[in-house]
Amino acid sequence: MSAGAPDTALSFAPARQRAPRGTVLLGTIAACFVATFTACSEATPANTAEPASASPIARIQTQPVAPRAPSNVLLIVIDSLRKDRMSAYGYERNTTPRIAELASDGVLYTGAVSQAPWTTPSIGSLMTSRYPSSLGIETERSVIPESLDMLAERLQDAGFATGGVVSHTFCSTDWGFAQGFDSFDESNILGHDAVTSAGVSDRGIEFLEANAEAERGDRPWLLFLHYFDPHFAYNAHDAFPFGGPHPDYAGRLHSGMLFKELNAQRDELSPDDMTELARYYDSELAHTDAEIGRVLDHLRATGEYASTLVVVAADHGEEFLDHGRLGHAKTLYDELVNVPLIVRYPGGAPAVIDDPVGLIDVYPTITEFVGTAAPDRARGTSLYDAARGRHRTPADVFTETSRYANLRALIEGDHKLVLDVSTGGVVLFDRRTDPHERIDIARREPQRAKRLAKRVRALMEMALEDVVQTTDRTLSPEEEERLRQLGYL
Ligand SMILES: [Zn+2]
Q1: Distance 196 CA to ligand 1 centre (A)
Q2: pLDDT digit string (tens) for 458-475?
Q3: Residue 370 scores a pLDDT above 80
Q4: Pairwise CA distance, residues 171 & 124, whole Å
Q5: Which fold has domain 398-471?
Q6: Tens digit of pLDDT for each residue in 235-287?
Q7: What residues does each domain of the chain span?
Q8: How far is the CA of 73 from the centre of ligand 1 (A)?
Q9: How far is CA 33 from CA 115, 188, 257, 290, in A?
């Protein structure tokens, strides 16, 4: 891989030295554009039994990058986007070429963890740098409290023009997510089977155009775009057929099938059904990627790209029978919580970082980069420290869910411990030797299990120390019916 590494001076230092997996792999991203899935598998441990250390690792000389203030911020969250289905992370189908292109100009994190496996707590944690349990988000009705200083509020106070475009109820005004946004567009909240990525990009570009006109480009902006198409129902898009259905396929699935209907048949799905389902899902990814590309093209056309910090993440992944289920929210396996995260720092250089980081780190990363105060009682730490060559304290990452199951998990290096709060039971995985998390080694490594369980409990307590006054949303009969139709209640 090192043969493909750029030979220009590079600016991103190792976040920390952790053998055997390389902290920073150079050239991987560029090679991923043209290489096969196999050639890129070093960066995608979930896709391969081979540890990343199989690849030669180029270490980088520290060369600090100064923040470029004022800088714009484009924060993109793609709902239900599985990391190992992205070509940007080495997937065999070219599902995300535009995100890969962005990553070639930024930092691709392979060990990023969302703090929850469903929308409200995950994006809530990202927007507050607090753990979901401290936000009190436990059910479909849980709302982000008004009292918190959310990312958009912080940047609005710092003089940014702030725009948000969302396409799902669970991150809408009614659920508390419009706090701090000058404009917050919800016209693309159209339900699970609607195709909305183009609408999200259109509204986002409109915000950028309006801001450019009003401010003549003098005022920095924050634009939050939330894309929903990869979320079920999965629709095949004509522009991205990925070979089309197999000529012999006469199975039970069709594009746009409602999740309830699909999930009811999950125990009978054949390998051919799963292949067809993958094609729909991959097509949704490619469609969304192209729409994100349109926003990036707009920034290049207006000359704003050079001064824009771009963050691309997924709120959680998606299950395709990896552990017997479809959808998301019910477990903390890697197909749900090991999410894509790409940060393009203006003036930075490409790098791949394998260390565990959290979406909870995004808020302090953004505030540090744009030179404004960190969030109050942030539980995340800035990723930009490492990008500037500063030492970043080795992190473990905490993730949790209280909906359907009451689970807490800790990722420390290659190990992941999951605690079932209801039963007190724990399972321990070594994700390096067991990337699909099938072998519980808690009995084989009791000391490690005990230590990590203690740490999980300490983090649970720490999160609860921060609990803010929370409210559950009272749903109108219509809203209740709509959520029921969508399969949430
Ligand atoms: Zn979601």
Answers
A1: 14
A2: 999 988 888 887 778 788
A3: yes
A4: 8
A5: Arylsulfatase, C-terminal domain (3.30.1120)
A6: 999 999 998 887 888 889 999 999 999 999 999 999 999 999 999 999 999 99
A7: 2-6+17-52+67-395, 398-471
A8: 21
A9: 29, 31, 32, 15
At which residue do the structure tokens 């050079």 appear?
306
Helix/strand/coil for 223: strand
Q: What's the pLDDT tens digit per position in 166-202?
A: 999 899 999 999 999 999 999 999 988 899 999 999 9
Q: Is the pLDDT of residue 305 over 80?
A: yes
Centre of ligand 1 from the C-alpha of residue 2, in Å: 36
Alpha carbon distance 446, 434 (integer Å): 18
Structure tokens given for 228: 């929903």
CA 315 to centroid of ligand 1, rounded, Å:
5
Per residue, the 3-state secondary structure of 102-169, as one string, reads: HHCCCEEECCEECCCCCHHHHHHHHHHCCCHHHHCCCCCCEECCCCCCCHHHHHHHCCCEEEEECCCH
Give the CATH superfamily of 2-6+17-52+67-395: Alkaline Phosphatase, subunit A (3.40.720.10)
In whole angstroms, give the CA distance from residue 205 to residue 201.
6
Nearest to 102 by CA among 63, 75, 139: 75
